[in-house]
Design brief:
The protein is mainly alpha-helical. It is about 65% helix and about 0% strand. The protein contains 33 helices and no strands. The protein has helices at about 40-70, 110-135, 145-165, 170-195, 200-225, 265-270, 275-280, 285-305, 310-335, 340-365, 450-475, 485-500, 500-505, 510-540, 560-570, 575-600, 605, 615-650, 650-655, 660-680, 685-705, 710-730, 735-760, 765-785, 790-810, 815-830, 840-860, 865-885, 890-895, 895-910, 915-935, 940-965, 970-1005. The chain is extended, with a radius of gyration of 47 Å. The two termini are about 60 Å apart.
């Protein structure tokens, strides 16, 4: 095994050549090895660690040889109680098993757990005993005895923890202290019951809770002062004393006294009671309760940031959230239920105070003071990173890990000294020469994700509280129906303030994010409030589809019954609905403009204390944030377009326009939306604009159903709009959305005109079906022309829907229905001529068959063969052609459907037919099919024909079989069945016996 010599400042670590004594050469003059940079510094550390490891290995080998020699020499046995070292479990545990001694049973519970459980149970039992003594056995003693007993027991319980701490029994001291706290509560109860019975119970409880909280906090501080100081330790980890050489080891320095841990957090919990109890004693209303809880939460917040004890900070933070949340909710309820301006102002003031506390806490979380940076390493000018341990001469000595090898000895300050591998620390090492320069590495501040999330939540809560307070106050000053718009105005103001350059530069990123999230939540709430009326305005006119041309209303607000009543009752909201939708659209459009700047990089605010993150972190952050920002930008654009269209769509109802003006306005708005879709560059907003135009067009068409002339006018205008959009919109991506929507919509509008015009001229619905079917045929031809365009499939689907509408319209007359089905089958057959639409032939076949069946039903034809033979013959021909092309095709797929369509219905009809002709013809046909299957060895004809023939013969022989059965005695049939079952059982038993014999024979084999 090769060893590495210790590094020398005067020799090259690669070739060992001497280095010039003066200066700091950048490379070795002999081998040109670079001696500067982070790699050179790490090489120095690695060589030093390897040298120490070699020295330690040499020492361990020598000690091993001494131990082996001592064990081979006969000597006295080991002293009782001396245990041999037990090898660790796992791959490192080698050697005979007898070295480890007898195996011990695994213990399911650790010793500290047992100790804590026993102490807790003892404390609980003592507390229960004290309560029972105070409440039950209190009356058997006089007042002096009661006071003496309680005082003595309480003083003993309070003084015992200090003695226990001096003896090192910290857990027992904690339990006794908790018992003392219970006794203090009992003392307070006894004092009120005996000496102060005239005081109100709730007020006395509040004062007692305040006194106990302050006293218990002081008691915890006192025990910390009276507790013994821990013994100082030296470098070896033992108590200060003589070292191996007889000299005194230096002390590591004074250590903090350790008192009781529970009194301080318990005092914080007790401090939550006084203010709420005082509010209860004073009979406070909801605002008083909110003020009490808010004051408690504010005190907890201050304590959470000012206390030096971690347990106190954690407890105060939790209690601040527990008290502050109900306080803010109660204040918000006060604002919402206030009937006067004074009540709203009172609740709003509480909300603003809570918002100030939450915002201050968020600000303190993000900008909490950091510890002073480490001084630069002498000779390098490089500051170590905040998370790196100090290195160099001041590094603590001891057993540290070697580079990348956990648990092996290595120098302090060496990379990987803690058992992990990583980049070299930019710090000096004791003995490292100045000529081996340690280059500074980029050091970003460690991330504080939990603090950022907490700051975002707190600032969001503060923003919501401010918006509720301001919105509730202004709601009392605005006319009815405008309160939602007023609240939305405050949300817009907060969002604009957060987006200002000064706010972006001055506010921390989590605080800005929380305030922006609060404003966004209020926007969403306002939209949800106006959404039902918006849906009523846009979808309510569809109710005219069930009763068209029933008469036009005078005003738009009464255009439809249920939703019109809702609008009439909410007349105050008629302005708020379009305002809320329009403002939301404007906010989303503005947010879309700000998204690229936010996605350009993390920025200083995201990096921490104004320093840019490392290049690797920036690249990774960009890889995750840029796609999300792009998706958010698209969603914002689509939302802006959709809300703008919704605001425009509710204008006729909000302004209560005349009926004709409302219809024309909706058609014009649809044309504007489609024109905007043709102009927009982005794909998402363009599609949103196209979809919005289609929705407005549906609303306009539904409005027009109230009056016949308006129906013709609206459908004609919409046809012109959609046709113009399909013809004039760009044909190149990404602006193909208007064409994709306009072409199929034009087909649907043409179908509507083809239905409305004949009905307006006095024609019947089944007569108008032919005009509608003509539009469907024209739509299929248009789809053929647009087969290379994304609008082609949409036009084809629209034409199919129009054809289905024609079939529905013709359903009232059988002759017209048969003709429409036949024409639709011809159209589908024409579509099947396209290579990519061969499957349309199935639809064409089904339509033609249905047309023939409808025609036969119109002629009162009842024989099933008249319906099935026109299907069977083409099916058998197609099956024969398929078998000719593919000899491996199954006869079930080739001939099975065609044969089943005729044979099975005819068999069902034959079983109910009393004449002889149908069974005879069916039997002859089934016999022919069976013989053909046997001749060509085809399974489907053979089985189908044979089964139908057998059933047909059985039907003919059934009367004679019934006569024979009636002629036999009654016992013959059961006897025959019994014999059959007996034969089957005997056969089964014989098979089992043979199987047992075979198994026995196999078992006897050797």
């Amino acid at each position: 095994m090769s060893t590495v010599p210790p590094p020398s400042p005067s020799r090259c670590p690669g070739c060992g050549a001497p280095l010039p004594p003066a200066g700091s050469p950048a490379a070795c003059p002999a081998c040109a090895l670079r001696l500067a940079g982070p790699e050179a510094a790490e090489l120095w550390h690695v060589d030093t660690a390897l040298a120490r490891m070699d020295a330690e290995r040499t020492r361990l080998l020598a000690r091993r040889a001494q131990l082996l020699a001592a064990l081979r020499t006969p000597g006295p046995p080991a002293a009782p109680g001396t245990a041999a070292p037990v090898p660790a479990a796992g791959p490192a545990a080698v050697g005979p098993a007898r070295w480890a001694g007898p195996a011990r049973a695994q213990r399911e519970t650790s010793a500290p757990t047992v100790q804590n459980l026993l102490l807790a149970l003892g404390g609980v039992l003592l507390a229960v005993a004290a309560v029972v003594f105070t409440v039950v056995s209190w009356g058997s003693m006089g007042i002096a005895g009661r006071a003496a007993v309680l005082s003595a027991v309480t003083l003993v319980a309070l003084g015992t923890p200090v003695l226990l701490l001096r003896r090192g029994l910290a857990a027992t001291a904690e339990v006794v202290a908790c018992l003392a706290l219970v006794l203090l509560f009992l003392d307070a109860y006894a004092l009120h019951a005996v000496a102060l019975p005239h005081l109100p119970g709730t007020g006395y409880a509040a004062g007692a809770a305040a006194v106990l909280s302050a006293g218990w906090a002081g008691y915890g501080a006192l025990t910390s002062r009276l507790a013994p100081a821990p013994a100082a330790t030296g470098t070896g980890g033992k108590e200060t004393g003589k070292s191996a050489g007889g000299t005194a080891a230096p002390a590591a320095g004074p250590r903090a006294r350790r008192g009781l841990r529970l009194p301080a957090p318990v005092a914080v919990c007790l401090a939550q009671l006084p203010l709420p109890l005082w509010a209860l004693a004073a009979g406070a209303d909801a605002a008083g309760w909110a003020a009490a809880l808010l004051g408690t939460a504010a005190a907890d917040t201050v304590l959470a940031f000012r206390s030096g004890c971690r347990a106190v900070r954690t407890t105060a933070a939790v209690t601040a959230v527990v008290s502050g949340g109900p306080a803010l909710l109660t204040a918000a309820a006060v604002v919402a239920s206030a009937g006067a301006l004074a009540g709203s102002a009172r609740g709003g003031g509480l909300l603003l105070a809570g918002a100030a506390v939450a915002l201050g806490a968020a600000w303190r979380l993000v900008l909490r003071p950091q510890r002073a940076p480490e001084p630069p390493v002498p000779g390098t000018g490089v500051r170590p990173a905040p998370w790196q341990a100090p290195s160099g001469p001041s590094a603590p000595s001891g057993r540290t890990g070697a580079p990348g090898v956990p648990g092996l000895p290595g120098p302090a300050g060496v990379p990987g000294a803690s058992g992990t591998s990583g980049a070299p620390r930019a710090s000096g090492t004791a003995g490292a020469p100045g000529r081996w320069k340690a280059a500074g590495l980029p050091a970003g501040a460690p991330g504080a994700g939990a603090s950022a999330v907490a700051a975002r939540l707190l600032s969001g809560t503060a923003g919501l509280a401010v918006l509720v307070a301001c919105g509730g106050f202004t709601a009392r000053l605005t006319p009815p129906g405008l309160d939602v718009a007023a609240v939305l105005g405050w949300a817009v103001a907060l969002l604009a303030a957060v987006a200002l350059p000064a706010a972006r530069a001055g506010l921390p990123r989590p605080v800005r994010g929380g305030l922006g999230s609060a404003a966004a939540a209020v926007h969403a709430l306002c939209v949800l409030l106006v959404l039902p009326l918006t849906a009523a305005a846009l979808l309510g006119p569809l109710s005219w589809a069930g009763d068209p041309w029933s008469g036009a209303p005078r005003n738009a607000a009464r255009a439809f019954t249920s939703s019109g009543a809702a609008w009439v009752e909410a007349r105050g909201w008629s302005v708020s609905v379009p305002v809320v939708l329009a403002v939301t659209a404007a906010v989303l459009a503005a947010a879309r403009r700000f998204l690229p700047a936010a996605a350009a990089g993390p920025g200083p605010a995201a990096a921490g204390e104004g320093s840019a993150p490392p290049p690797g972190a920036r690249a990774a952050d960009l890889r995750t944030r840029v796609p999300r920002a792009a998706a958010a930008r698209t969603a914002a654009g689509c939302g802006a377009v959709g809300f703008a269209a919704g605001a425009a769509g509710v204008l006729p109802v909000a302004l209560d326009l005349p009926y004709a003006v409302a219809v024309v306005l909706l058609v014009a708005l649809s044309a504007v939306a489609l024109s905007a879709a043709a102009v927009l560059e982005a794909t998402g907003p363009a599609r949103a604009a196209s979809a919005s135009g289609a929705v407005l067009a549906v609303t306009a068409a539904a409005w027009s159903l109230a009056e016949q002339p308006m129906t013709h006018l609206a459908l004609g205008l919409l046809l012109a709009v959609f046709a113009g959009t399909a013809l004039l919109s760009p044909r190149t991506a990404p602006r193909t959305a208007p064409r994709t929507v306009g072409a199929p919509a034009a087909v649907l509008c043409a179908a509507g005109l083809a239905w409305a015009v004949p009905l307006g001229l006095g024609a019947a619905a089944h007569q108008a079906a032919f005009a509608v079917l003509a539009v469907a045929a024209a739509g299929e031809f248009l789809a053929l022309r647009l087969r290379a365009h994304p609008a082609g499939p949409a036009v084809e689907c629209a034409a199919g829907a129009v054809a289905a509408l024609a079939v529905v319209l013709a359903a009232g007359d059988a002759t017209a229905l048969a003709t429409v089905l036949a024409l639709a089958g011809v159209v589908a057959g024409g579509v099947a001529l396209r290579e990519d639409r061969r499957r349309a032939a199935w639809a064409a076949t089904a339509l033609l068959v249905a047309a023939s069946w409808v025609r036969l039903a119109a002629w009162d034809v009842e024989a099933p063969e008249a319906y099935t033979l026109p299907v069977t013959v083409p099916a058998l021909v197609i099956g024969a052609l398929r078998r000719r092309r593919d000899a491996t095709a199954s006869s079930w797929t080739s001939y099975g459907p065609g044969l089943s369509v005729t044979l099975l219905p005819s068999l069902a009809a034959a079983w109910g037919d009393a004449h002889w002709l149908r069974p005879l013809l069916l039997g002859a046909a089934a016999l022919a099919v069976t013989l053909a299957g046997a001749r060509h060895r085809l399974q489907a004809p053979l089985l189908l024909g044979g089964a139908v023939l057998a059933l047909d013969v059985l039907h003919e022989l059934a009367p004679y079989v019934v006569q024979v059965v009636d002629a036999l005695p009654r016992w013959v049939v059961p006897a025959l069945v019994g014999l059959l079952l007996l034969a089957l059982g005997s056969r089964y038993e014989q098979r089992l016996r043979d199987a047992r014999r075979v198994r026995a024979a196999l078992g006897r084999m050797r």
